[in-house]
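Researcher: Quick test of sequence recovery. Tokens follow.
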């Protein structure tokens, strides 16, 4: 069974198992899979534990603070993750190096504004 809800300016499509437990949830904004502040696609096992979560920006895989794809086993353990940033896939090491460089640039920029 599928339901369409409206939350915080998004359309949220939810699908349920026969036992009424959530099977999947997809967040839409302007006809694209998109959500800020959380995963745009969530899939669940029948026991209610997460199966897969995807962070998407305007339909594309993208996350600025962790993996854009997380896959879980039926016991709820994270078994796979993929890091995507601005349409590019990165290894975990490359991704966190990129974040560190971005933070250093922000710090340098704010120090210049303050005159340090």
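Model:
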């Amino acid at each position: 069974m599928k339901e369409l809800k409206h939350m915080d300016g998004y359309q949220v499509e939810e699908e349920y198992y026969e036992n009424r437990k959530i099977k999947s949830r997809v967040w839409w904004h302007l006809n694209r899979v998109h959500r800020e502040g959380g995963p745009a696609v969530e899939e669940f096992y029948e026991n209610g534990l997460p199966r897969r979560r995807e962070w998407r920006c305007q339909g594309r895989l993208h996350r600025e603070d962790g993996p854009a794809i997380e896959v879980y086993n039926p016991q709820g353990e994270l078994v796979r993750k993929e890091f995507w940033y601005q349409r590019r896939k990165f290894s975990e090491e490359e991704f966190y190096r990129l974040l560190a460089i971005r933070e250093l640039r922000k710090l340098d920029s704010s120090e210049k504004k303050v005159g340090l």
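The chain has one domain: 2-91.
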